[in-house]
Queue: 2 jobs
Job 1
Amino acid sequence: MSFINRSKFRVALAVFSLIGFIFIVTGCTGFTRKPESRSTNSPLSVVLAEMVGTVTPTAINMSTSSPVPTQIFTIPPLISPTPNTRPKPFYWRDWPISPDLSPNAQEILLKAIKNPALDLHTFSKVGDCQMTPVTFLGGFAKGEYAIPPGLEPAVSWFSASMTSQSVTAANGLGISSVLDPIFGLAAGNTQCQANETPLDCELRTRRPAVVLIAMGTNWKPNGEVSFEKYLRQVVDRILATGALPILATKADDVEGDWKLDLAIAQVAYDYDLPLVNVWRSAQSLPNHGLEAPLDEYLTGDGWMAANYAWLNTLEKVRQELAK
């Protein structure tokens, strides 16, 4: 082979080697296995989402065959200036029996103090027979129940509301009933106007600064979705007046799988409102404070456990209103 041919051969060999190297490099990056996609419901994804407040970001393209963009995604901060430390609705069983008032609830009450349209000594009740004065709080104002030490100021402050009837708390009422005018004037509530819902009637005539909501025992099968929808409407209407809604779980599970308590907790969480955990207040009682065999209504001890939880919460409200 001549010198020129040998030189050409060496050049061709070098070029061929270079092309092979490039093919190997680009081939490895081109066929790199993609990261496994994880369901947003997988344990790891859920934990990461809760830590950083978002879902897991997409993978960065590490290919060397093209320039890496300056910014693929923005990593959210691991620590927020105001971290949300509230327990999630799924864990409503662990929520306290008597809640502390969040900054949001305190702000609502502060505005209520400055609102001449509201009566700071008045609360309204939204519920069924379990929210009537015969069983709910009325005994404290009438001297029939022993008042726990330190809670006397709450009884004095709200005594008139404890013994009064609410249009929105009566036997057989459901969450949609208080939004239906047929349960107002047409039902014999003469203080209500024609075509006025019981809720609007109650808010107009009593001008409460606080509204206590305990609904769900009168449940209809498969009604948890509509229950939450109507509960949100009730909360929205109350907030529109400037009053503070306070929600509560229920001790029974007539619907199965605790769907309504979870719905109530979700609404309380979304609106950042106080929730009295009546369910938890009754857990240490025989049969969890429920009358056997139906396990639907509270026993006498169950009533009192719920009353103490509500009264303790009202004292926290009173302290804010009395500032």
Job 2
Amino acid sequence: MLLSGICRPDELGHFSDIDISHIQQVINAYPMFINPYYLGLIKTKGDVIYRQAVPDIAEITQADGTPDPLNEEDLSPVPGLTHKYLDRVLFLVSSRCAMYCRFCNRKRKVGGAGMVTAESIREGIRYIKSNKNIRDVLLSGGDPLLLTDSELFRILSEVRSIPHVEIIRIGTRVPCTLPQRVTPELAEMLKGFQPLYINTHFNHPWEITPESALACSTLADAGIPLGCQTVLLKGVNDDIEIMRELMKGLLAIRVRPYYLFQADLVKGTSHFWTGFKKGLEIIAGLQGYISGMCIPRFMIDLPDGGGKIPVTPDYIKEIREDELIVKNYQGKEF
């Protein structure tokens, strides 16, 4: 397949002033992988693409956060499957990614041996079959689109054959990080498992390229609705103008902005965290200035398995018996 790239510190030698020993220390704990396409998006050391892909010593020197803040492991009735909500499950089917994001909320295990096995996939299928409350299955990982077409077809076929499963979703960053993987053959295969939805993950306008636009168009042309789950990241996209450009760019390539996530409190990622007010400021800075179709919901995934909640800026000033006093996007009261 297309998956080749760098995974050793000495392969980053074309960037000057990199401390190879620091990077080696980090990847002893958290693996690194950057494919040539995504590596090619880096313009300078320390830029917004570099920060997402290249290890930072802060990953092992800052102790804030916990390995599993969303409590996925305790909510896993079988290995590799999280059942947090009554009618839907998160099903891990791949342990690899096209690029290991340094802010990943599964940093503790992505890229590790044994994260996903043939047996864990079989157990997951059995669990879904046995629980008739499950109507919605989200395939995740790692990245499901790094499976071969035949491997993914087999898993999708098994899930789709379960009578009570109505919806299948795929969470993937491949259209952004390795768009060449999205072939017409892959899209045609996925088309056979409708209703099927894909949520992808772009964090910065630089990631919207002719290649990623083509990947998204190929999937959209197959009738697959596309959404984007962006993560708010310090030094990457914690800026109103950048976020406006990103959201407008996504809609232009037929990807609907879906969620803007407050970064999870994952150990090894605190250098990416923003204050909670930053997300509200950005959403307020989008409202009224770009199309409503471009505006995601600002979401916080609560710790300890509490689930997701949407948070919005406060537009309601006062509620009276027969009046509602509000402010608009410009701060004017009505």
